[in-house]
Each structure stands twice: as structure tokens, then as C-alpha cells.
Write a structure and sequence with these properties.
The protein is an alpha/beta fold. It folds into two domains: about 30-115 and about 235-345, 3-Layer(aba) Sandwich (D-Maltodextrin-Binding Protein, domain 2); about 115-230, Periplasmic binding protein-like II (D-Maltodextrin-Binding Protein, domain 2, 3-Layer(aba) Sandwich), CATH 3.40.190.10. The protein contains 17 helices and ten strands. The strands form two sheets. Strands 2-1-3-10-4 form a five-stranded mixed sheet, with helices on both faces. It has a five-stranded mixed sheet with strand order 7-6-8-5-9, with helices on both faces. Helix 2 packs across helix 13 (about 270-275) and helix 8 packs across helix 15. The protein is globular, with a radius of gyration of 23 Å.
């Protein structure tokens, strides 16, 4: 068959186009899918947001999808157990209770290494308890007596947190104060603004809205370790099934490397990192966002290595808050094998 000059040019152009397109196709085909599930949106996930915006997952050859589960940590953990997502970005307390039921999961990298929720008091409550002159942590905790504090729900992390603080101050949380389950941040801020509650427990930026917009104040700065029982608390980690961690070490290492780069970028380039997070919180006024950033940044380390002491804080938190021991050996709750494998590439 004879080929005309025009046909030859067309064929050659098509072949060249295919050749030139091979790298992008290969990259798209080679990119490995990984699904991360988180139970909320908030400043708890700062290194994840930074890694997403700065392209750290893509640089690792990952197609990272993040799913937010509206029903909280239990739902996000259930998705991991069912194989609907690969990683639960959340509290080790949820993981520990799942392990007690025989579920083969563990933490393999730290995300936030100070307690990530806050307890914000109203301006009236701050004045009533004379917060400015309370220096002793136990005296601060005891000052909750008679106050009404909103939490997300019964048995939630915020509920356990408030109860823990009350007990630390020598109070009976069911008799000496009122703990009100009220739902999410919108409900809390509405009640706070209407002065129906004296305070509320939640993470930034909802916590900082109460400070910036309504003149409230934090009882403790958890990010700086002001509350002794929560100092160096391993608050959020990357959690996965044991068979996934062992069976997909390459993907696990790539995820950890991307998150680690996010942590390092937050420390070395805080202004740029802050702007990388901003697109996820466009509805938050700039003043509230900036305050949330400044207050949250100290809660993150420059390394995702898990501290046994930090993990043990989760054991104590559950045991003291639920009055029930944790039947999981500490050695079964986490591994640093993935972090150790990644470390040489980031030196």
C-alpha cells in the first residue's frame, strides 16, 4: 500500500505524540493509590494538608485520596478494618479499643505529639474563676467546679478530656460540674456565643474562634504541655492493619516520607506551610486562622517517630477516663519499623 506524503506526516505526528506522551502515561499508570481516612477536619491534620498542597504525596509516586468520615473515629477505623481505606489518621485510643476486640491494627507513625483538643472558657467564666491568677495546674482544673462545659458527645475524646481534667482537680465530673454533649463545632460556637455554656472542648480552628471572636481563653495550652498529664501525649497517628503494614512496605514508607516532609516543612518554612494549609479553611476568617496556626504549631514534632512514653499516655487517658484498663501489650500497639526505614532518605 502506498502512503501519501500527507498520510506519512499524519502518521509520524501521531507516533511522535504517543512517544512524547509515554512519560506522563507511565507516571499516571505507575502512581500507587492509597486511601487515608480521617474522622474530622481540623488543625490536627496539618502535616497531611501540607503534604497534599505541596505535592509531597505526588513526589512519592502516590495517588493519595483523603476521606473524611462524618461519624468520627469509630467509622474511620471500621473502614480500615473492612479494607475500604488503607490508613486511619486518628487517635490511638480508638485503635487500642479495636485491638482489645481482636482487630489486628497498630500505629506506624506519629502525626501530632501533643494533645490536640482545647478547652475554651468564656470571658465571663475566665473572670469568675480569676484565670489570670491561677498558676497551679490542679487549681486551674478545680476551677471548673460549677461550670457548664460542652463536649462533642458522650464517651467522645472531648468528653474524656474534660472528665480527666475534672478528676485531676479533685472534682466529680458528674456532680461538681455540668458536661453537655452538644455535637460539632457549629453547635458549640452557637451555644458559646449565646452564653448558654461556660466553655467547650474541641480542636482548632473551632477552639480559636471562641478566643478571637468571642473573647474566650484556653484553660490550658495543651500544645505547650501546660497540663502535666497530657504533656508529650501521642495524640494522632497513622494507623493501619498489620497485614497492610507488612504486605505493602513500599507504600507505607512513601506515605510516611510524605508526611515527614510535611512536618519538616512546617518547622523550616512556617509561613509557606501556613499558606499551604489555608485552602482547606477558606471559611475561617484570617485572624482566627492565623491564631489557630500559631497556637497549633508547637503541638507537632519534626519527626514521626513514635515515643513509647507518648503512647502510654493514651493508656492512662483511657484507664482514667473510662475507669477501665487497656488489655493490649504496649509492644503490640505500635511499630517504628517504617519510620526507621525512611529515616536515612531524609538525612
Amino acid at each position: 500500500m502506498q502512503v501519501t506524503r500527507r498520510q506519512a506526516i499524519t502518521i509520524t505526528g501521531a507516533v511522535m505524540a504517543n512517544i512524547l506522551n509515554i512519560p506522563s502515561l507511565a507516571m499516571a499508570q505507575a502512581r500507587q493509590k492509597v486511601i487515608l481516612g480521617q474522622p474530622s477536619e481540623g488543625f490536627i491534620y496539618l502535616p497531611i494538608y501540607v503534604a497534599r498542597t505541596r505535592g509531597f504525596f505526588e513526589k512519592e509516586g502516590l495517588d493519595a485520596e483523603v476521606i473524611t468520615f462524618s461519624k468520627g473515629g469509630a467509622e474511620a477505623m471500621a473502614a480500615v478494618l473492612a479494607g475500604q481505606s488503607d490508613i486511619y489518621v486518628g487517635s490511638p485510643t480508638v485503635q487500642l479499643r479495636a485491638q482489645e476486640k481482636g482487630q489486628p491494627v497498630k500505629s506506624f507513625a506519629a502525626v501530632q505529639t501533643q494533645f490536640g483538643s482545647d478547652l475554651v472558657l468564656s470571658a465571663d467564666a475566665v473572670k469568675k474563676i480569676d484565670l489570670a491568677n491561677l498558676k497551679d495546674p490542679k487549681a486551674k482544673a478545680a476551677a471548673l467546679k460549677g461550670l457548664t462545659i460542652a463536649v462533642a458527645g458522650p464517651g467522645s475524646l472531648t468528653d474524656l478530656m474534660v472528665r480527666h481534667i475534672a478528676l485531676y482537680g479533685g472534682l466529680n465530673p458528674d456532680r461538681d460540674m455540668t458536661i453537655t454533649p452538644i455535637g460539632g463545632g457549629g453547635n458549640m460556637l452557637a451555644a458559646f456565643g449565646q452564653k448558654r455554656i461556660d466553655g467547650y472542648a474541641l480542636s482548632a480552628p473551632t477552639s480559636t474562634t471562641g478566643i478571637e471572636r468571642f473573647g474566650g481563653a484556653m484553660l490550658f495550652n495543651f500544645a505547650k504541655g501546660e497540663y502535666p498529664p497530657f504533656a508529650d501525649f501521642l495524640f494522632y497517628t497513622l494507623i493501619a492493619r498489620n497485614d497492610w503494614i507488612v504486605g505493602k512496605p513500599e507504600i507505607a514508607q512513601k506515605v510516611v516520607r510524605a508526611v515527614w516532609r510535611g512536618l519538616l516543612f512546617m518547622k523550616s518554612n512556617p509561613d509557606e506551610a501556613r499558606e499551604a494549609v489555608r485552602p482547606f479553611f477558606t471559611q475561617v476568617p484570617k485572624a482566627e486562622f492565623d491564631l489557630a496556626w500559631n497556637l497549633s504549631l508547637p503541638a507537632f514534632s519534626d519527626s514521626p517517630r513514635i515515643s513509647e512514653a507518648g503512647m502510654m499516655k493514651n493508656y492512662s487517658f483511657l484507664q482514667e477516663g473510662e475507669r477501665k484498663s487497656v488489655g493490649v501489650p504496649i509492644g503490640d500497639s505500635y511499630t517504628n519499623a517504617v519510620v526507621d526505614a525512611v529515616a536515612p532518605s531524609l538525612k
